[in-house]
Amino acid sequence: MQQFEPFISFVPLAILILVFYFLVFRPQQQQKKRHIEMVTTLKRGDKIVTNGGFVCEVVKQEDNFINVRLGDNQVRLSKDYVAYKIELADDGDSKLTK
Which residues, in sequence order, are CB contacts of 36 under 8 Å at separation 6+? Predict the structure, then answer.
């Protein structure tokens, strides 16, 4: 029985690591995956909100950037700074997609 005592002392630590993984790391990975998928599927005419709070309309996608219309100006925006997409429902209400 003395052989298993060191192993038994690590069981609570292993359980704590598993709980931490499922409560913190896994949700972050899933959220990042959904965000990357959302950014790569943006197309011309989609409305987005940047991390700075600007509401823009997508004009063209490039490798690392998106050309967007901001007011009367057209600017390049890094894909990293897209916060979420605004989807218009059939009844005209806005729905946010993160």
Answer: none
Q: Model's pTM, two decimal places?
A: 0.71
pLDDT per residue as tens digits for the range 45-73: 999 999 999 999 999 999 999 999 999 99
Print burial letters for 56-81: b (CB count within 10 Å at least 16), e (below 16): bebbebeeeebebeeeeeeeebebee
Give the CA count within 13 Å in the CB-facing half-sphere of 37.
8
CB of 48 within 8 A of CB of 42? yes
Question: Is the dihedral angle over the CA atoms 43, 41, 34, 81 positive or is it negative?
Answer: negative
